Amino acid sequence: MVVDPGSEAPVAAGSAGGTAAETPPRAHEVLEEFSQLDVLEQARLLTRVDDATARTVLHEADQGAVARLLRSMEPSAAAAVWRLLPTDDRVGVARHLPRELRERFLSTLPPAEKEAAQGLLSLSEETAGGRMSPNFVSLPDSATVEQARRIVQNSASAETVFYLYVVDSRGRLLGTLSVRRLLTSPPNARVRALMSENPVSVGVEAPIAEAARLIDQHRFLAVPVVDGTNRIAGILTADDARRAVQGDVDRAVFEVTGVDPGREAGISPWKAATLRMPWLLVTVASGLGCAFLTGLFERTLHEAVAIAAFVPLVLALGESVAAQTTAVVQMGILGGATSPRRWRDLADEVAVGALAGVGTGVVVGAIAWFWKGDAGLGWILGSSVLLALSAASGIGAAIPLLLRATKLDPAVASGPVALAFADLATLSIYFGVTRLWWTSEP
């Protein structure tokens, strides 16, 4: 049975931590300005607004950007901004901080909050547990309505109560209770008799993309996150799930280009160039490999000069398909696709590349035929594009899967490596088909 508590509006329950119950009127204007400034200007902006607005801006801003801001500030100013951060956001920001700075900030937290933060940081940020908030309101199943109301009123750790979670004596999730029903029920009624059973929940190790889909499917404001024994460990809010998934989308795009803006922000041009050099060298290596292949087919190019004119076109098509496929597969990996599903994705992407190759090959071949008046050139280009795009799609899918299978992080590597191999495969196919056609002609 699916419990849909989403119709119940959240209610304020405290004054510290969590997401602000009400957004200050100017906060969205300040946030828009904040996102367009460099870190020094961002720091000045935060000193010009009240604490409520600053807290909302810090909550809505990209957590990586907030971490870069903290790294750039003087220790005392950074500590002031850290104190303004909503409790739910501190772990996310801490993930982007250097270890030494992270430990310094965590040491300022109360012991219980520090222990909870360290526990969350030990979990992968690609899981629901790694993104959950430990601030939620749970009610003992044996409590009366009157006792439950007092618990809600005293829940200062959760500024916004999304839903009320009913647990047994061991903390295991039994059900949910709407705030409306709590407020309208007799004081002596038992919570257990009023709750909705079999609540929807996600596991601590569930992929964040899977949890986000569940939240979106049921239109929840939050979903409980449980451990292996069904004990509630935290909640994942719709806002945090959305930001996490958007971050994965951005990461997949960055991986195709070989550039990670999050790592390069706030560092010197020299260090940024150093970070990019390994992947640029991959491109250099593939370029030299293509030059070597061209040398091997030099005689063929002399005999078929028109073939050389279409080399940039064939390479561009192969690179485009490889980049598209790499992005699609990377999103599947970040979304938590299982291993069988990943390898099925490889086969699917090869099929997509072959179908795209048929359509593109017909178009390119026909254009070359009518342009140059050479049917042989048209057949060479058409068949080469078909084979090259099939190979490029297979390479684009295989590289990130192989990196993940060998326990290597495909981050900021899949794109450059896939494009390099796609270039070599595309050129080999193009020249190989050309030589076969020319040598087979009577």
Kindly describe this structure:
By secondary structure, the protein is α/β, with parallel strands linked by helices. It has 3 domains: 5-9 and 133-237, CBS-domain, CATH 3.10.580.10; 14-124, MgtE N-terminal domain-like (MgtE N-terminal fold); 258-440, SLC41 divalent cation transporters, integral membrane domain (Tetracycline Repressor, domain 2). 65% of the residues lie in helices and 7% in strands. Strands 2-4-5-6 form a 4-stranded mixed beta sheet. A 3-stranded mixed beta sheet has the order 7-8-9. Helix 4 (63-72) runs antiparallel to helix 5 (75-84) and helix 16 packs parallel to helix 22 (414-440). The model is unreliable at 1-23 (pLDDT under 50).
CATH architectural type of the largest domain: Orthogonal Bundle
* Main beta sheet strand tally, sense and closure: 4 strands, mixed
Spatial strand order of the main sheet:
2-4-5-6
Range of strand content: 5-15%
Stretches where pLDDT falls below 50 for ≥5 residues? Answer: 1-23
